[in-house]
């Protein structure tokens, strides 16, 4: 049993963190580029999770203590709206993580053509498309949440983003490693090459590791709902959803 107050604190911390990211990008003119706009959208997506979490937890605390009395039908509608916000933020957050990976890939492999490929207009279209797709898909998901096909689509989307990021970042790491090897062989400094390669590998592991650790349990939960909803092991796992 995890107290609602803990969710409230986590939501507030997350909200402040993401607000700082958005404020830094909007205030600093040097950060007014497609790359940082994508990062800003990612922060806004994560902010939606925080706002949804704060609203839901606050209402639950007020209702538990008898401060707020709301009709059951209104509570149900509010719950659906908050769930839609959370679902929309999940889809948009995953999408922008994928968009950022693609953007970094273009920066490295098509450096000279980057500004002609990733124009401001294309960046705006990409961001608008992600937000629109997230809103539509979250509405469908909440409306048909009992449908197995919908859950499979969401799980498939997560796996697609995971594989996409793995492929792109590993390819980028391989290119950086090749460049380092060429430089170190010319300068005859193999120690620098090994040290830089190790740092790159650690960074890549942290990036993808944190992504999987943060999102993995939730999508594993959805996978178990589809594959073994009545199995004792699965039922046990379901009871730890709040954790």
Report on the structure:
The chain is an all-alpha fold and 243 residues long. It contains eight helices and no strands. It has helices spanning 4-27, 34-64, 72-109, 114-117, 120-143, 148-187, 190-227, 232-238.
Record keyword descriptors for this entry.
mainly alpha; 2 domains; 85% helix; Rhopdopsin 7-helix transmembrane proteins; 243 residues
Q: What's the topology here?
A:
Layout: H1 4-27, H2 34-64, H3 72-109, H4 114-117, H5 120-143, H6 148-187, H7 190-227, H8 232-238
Helix pairs in contact: 1-2, 2-3, 2-5, 3-5, 3-6, 6-7
The oligomeric status of these chains comes to single chain
Query: What is CATH's topology name of the largest domain?
Result: Rhopdopsin 7-helix transmembrane proteins
Count every beta strand, where a strand is a DSSP E run of 2 or more residues.
0
> Helicity, in percent?
over 70%
The shape is globular
Rg (C-alpha, Å): 21 Å
Order of helices and strands: HHHHHHHH
Tell me the name of the CATH class of the largest domain: Mainly Alpha
Rounded mean pLDDT score = 84
Class per helix and strand makeup: mainly alpha
CATH architectural arrangement of the largest domain: Up-down Bundle
Largest sheet: none
Number of helices: 8
Could you name the ranges where pLDDT drops below 50 across 5 or more consecutive residues?
none
CATH homologous superfamily grouping of the largest domain: Rhodopsin 7-helix transmembrane proteins
Q: How many domains make up the coordinates? A: 2
Distance between the termini: 8 Å
**Binned strand content:** under 5%
Subcellular location: Cell membrane
GO cellular component, one term: plasma membrane
Protein name: Melanocyte-stimulating hormone receptor
Pfam families: 7tm_1
């Amino acid at each position: 049993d995890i107290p609602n107050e803990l969710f409230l604190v986590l939501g507030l911390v997350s909200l402040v963190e993401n607000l700082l990211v958005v404020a830094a990008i909007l205030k600093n003119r040097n950060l007014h580029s497609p790359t940082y706009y994508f990062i800003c959208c990612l922060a806004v997506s994560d902010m939606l999770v925080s706002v949804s979490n704060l609203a839901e937890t606050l209402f639950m605390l007020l209702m538990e203590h008898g401060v707020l009395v709301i009709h059951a039908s209104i509570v149900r509608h509010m719950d659906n709206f908050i769930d839609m916000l959370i679902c929309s933020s999940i889809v948009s957050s995953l999408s922008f993580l994928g968009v950022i990976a693609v953007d970094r890939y273009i920066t490295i492999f098509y450096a000279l053509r980057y500004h002609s490929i990733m124009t401001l207009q294309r960046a705006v279209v990409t961001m608008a498309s992600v937000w629109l797709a997230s809103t539509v898909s979250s509405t469908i998901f909440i409306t048909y949440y009992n449908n197995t096909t919908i859950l499979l689509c969401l799980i498939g989307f997560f796996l697609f983003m995971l594989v996409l990021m793995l492929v792109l970042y590993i390819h980028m790491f391989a290119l950086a490693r090749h460049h380092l090897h060429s430089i170190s062989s010319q300068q005859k400094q193999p120690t620098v090459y090994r040290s830089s390669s190790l740092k790159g590998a650690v960074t890549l592991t942290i990036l993808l590791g944190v992504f999987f650790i943060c999102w993995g349990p939730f999508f594993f939960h959805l996978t178990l709902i589809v594959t073994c909803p009545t199995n004792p092991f699965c039922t046990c796992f379901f009871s730890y959803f709040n954790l």
